[in-house]
Design brief:
Strand order of the largest sheet: 1-5-4-3-2
Radius of gyration: 15 Å
CATH topology: Nuclear Transport Factor 2, Chain: A
Number of domains: 1
Shape: globular
Helix content: 25-40%
Oligomer: single chain
Number of helices: 4
CATH class: Alpha Beta
CATH architecture: Roll
Length: 143
């Protein structure tokens, strides 16, 4: 069964809201158990809920005030079940992230775009995050 256009249009906000709620169960509900997730800060793609939970938990620990905001309207490719959306990420580095990194207390703002492949149940089977990780690392004093 293919994913509906309305599900694709709504997905980016559901995903960003899940990040903003800082609740593992809520976040994992919008991600397929066998997700393929690529992010500039990850050395290898995540491939399941365990990896996703670790990444989410680490980000929330390092940046307790982490917040995502959609920028503009999503771009939908219904034929392939994909949707893309630009976002703005803000936060303050008040916890340890990445592991072993000194806490800087610095605030940051990073702009990026995600592309998701979404299944008929409204879960991402693939997440590809695109942003300049150097902007983030410089802002928190790690580059």
């Amino acid at each position: 069964m293919s994913v509906s256009t309305s599900t694709l249009e709504a997905y980016p906000q559901r995903y960003l809201d899940a990040w903003n709620q800082r609740d593992i169960a809520t976040a994992l509900a919008v991600i397929h158990p066998n997700v393929h997730w690529e992010d500039p800060l990850l050395p290898v793609p995540l491939i399941d809920h365990d990896g996703a939970a670790g990444f989410l938990g680490g980000a929330w620990q390092g940046f307790p005030d982490l917040r995502f905001e959609a920028v503009g309207d999503p771009l939908v490719d219904a034929a392939s079940g994909r949707v893309a959306s630009a976002w703005r990420m803000t936060g303050t580095h008040t916890g340890e992230f990445p592991a072993g990194a000194p806490i800087s207390g610095n605030a940051f703002t990073v702009l990026g775009t995600d592309i998701w492949e979404v299944d008929a149940e409204g879960r991402a089977t693939s997440v590809h995050a695109y942003y300049d990780s150097l902007v983030l690392l410089r802002a928190i004093g790690l580059a």
